[in-house]
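Table 4 source record.
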Amino acid sequence: MNNKKLDTSELNLGIVCPMANEADVAVDFVKETLENCQDFASVTFFAVLDYASTDNTLDILLNSAKSESRLNVIWAPENRCVVDAYIRGYKEAIYAGCDWILEIDAGYSHQPTDIPKFFHKMIQGYDCIFGSRFCHGGKIRNSSFRRRLISLGGTVMTNMLLGTTLSDMTSGFQLFTQETLKYTLQKGIKSRYHFFQTEIKFYCRNFKIAEVPICYKAASPSVNKTAIFDAFQNLFRLFQERLLGK
């Protein structure tokens, strides 16, 4: 772990963003995200799409990539779930030699204007930075009380069982060094639903980590029962790993 402040002008940044049915906002979202990623040696936006996208988002992004060299559109029909899309994006960024890899959700559920907070923190020598809706300055908007309760309750439960200490254990929007992300992938991500974000945070618990406040908008009002079962199943598995010292 590096305690020296880094010069981002010497680093290559990769942005991993699964996208589906974003035809109305895809181009603007890519543009605004890139505008908030300045002063790097290079920046590549990896837009990952698969059969979950049923509108013309793919065609729109492919056309946009003709004039935006920083946009890399990845068609991944082999994906079977949203986790596959993220992992494909991670691997593409690592293969491309990106020093830092930023994960962000499309459709403005994550705000591009929050991105510089991650960089300002990361240059202090951290291994990964996690966006938090519940730390000081964090916000959740256009979301039901039930969803907020599930997210906050999930954080309290996982911190208690897994020995983690983050204020938000269930969110996405995060920044990794290449080495940290490689380690996480080598550990093996077992969850097939959104609990994989918690799984990643558990694997990163012994690295030098920090949180920054984010504004999250428009969470789904309900949570799939299969996803809830997946979360409890994998939480129990990680709890066992913790007891075994893995």
